[in-house]
User: Fold this.
Amino acid sequence: MHYSAKSLCSDKRFGRKKALAKQRASGKKPNFEVIKDALAAALERRAFPEGQVILERPIAEIFKTSRAPVRRALAELHEEGKLFKFEGRGYKTDNSDIILREEIRPETLGLDDEAQTSAPAEASIIDDVYRATKRSTSIAMTFGQFRIRSEKHSQHFGVSRTISREILGKLMDEGLVGKDSTGHWITGPLTARDVKQDFETRRLLEPYSLETCGPLIPVELLEQMKLRLQEALARTPEDKNPSLLETIEADLHQRCHSFNPNKKIAKFINQSLTPLVVGLVFSDAVRASVEKPGLREHLTIIESLIAGKHSEASEHLHDHLLNAETRTLERMKSLSVIPEPSLPNYLIKIS
Assistant:
């Protein structure tokens, strides 16, 4: 898949002055102006608690865009005296001595789901590139260690190097990508020892987190998760939907935990999810309903949450993680005899 760089961003930092003028001429606001207006309105109505810190990445994720337009919006608000610098990273919403790092939610900025999903085309393209990069690096890491050439990555997708770096940085936060001693981007290898350590971490944190945040998860969201599981269970091996399986894994192991008030726990869990790639790669490589046992376990957990049985859901999750570890280690053995698939040219095998 190759995208024209001209369609990606109207911000001056990407050198798109003509695109910016064209966007304004069409009556459509550039990304940074949309973000700036939303933040300015929230500041004016005092939507932020005293001492709130604002960082680029969380705002970029809310608007589903790169950090460049967020950076410009924050800088302009600072120049206008609406945001304040301090000794730490980012900006503060006031010049008090208080430093507060609470999560900023879309509703704080006066946004609803429709407002977020109607973001400019850049956001959709970046999301597509992120998903494709995640899938390729996930496959690669199960077959050894690979260097990720960021310049080849940006050329492959037709995006700027800034966007490439942001995408790779996000994958680093998820534990899928790292850097070697010389500063080069790398992925893999995923070893049995890594898998065991990640599952040990998850068994300690995930059940506790789910019991804590279970009462905070909207039932409507849980019902949507249940429908996705039922759809996946009804599919045949020939009718697999990898994107659906990825969404289902994220439902239980990321979205549910995002409601935990303790964001450090959610972060540690998120960094221990690397073993999930083994199931997805194996599912792609073997035409069999290998994911069905795991899906049924997911369904039992989600149904317990819907019924308000949070302790029961936590116990089911602990059992699911034990079973998932066994399945993952077995699948890693099977993958060791499967021929290495063709990978994009930005992935260079090292070992």
In short: Residues 310-335 form the longest helix (26 residues). The CA atoms of residues 138 and 277 lie 6 Å apart. The chain has a mean pLDDT of 82.
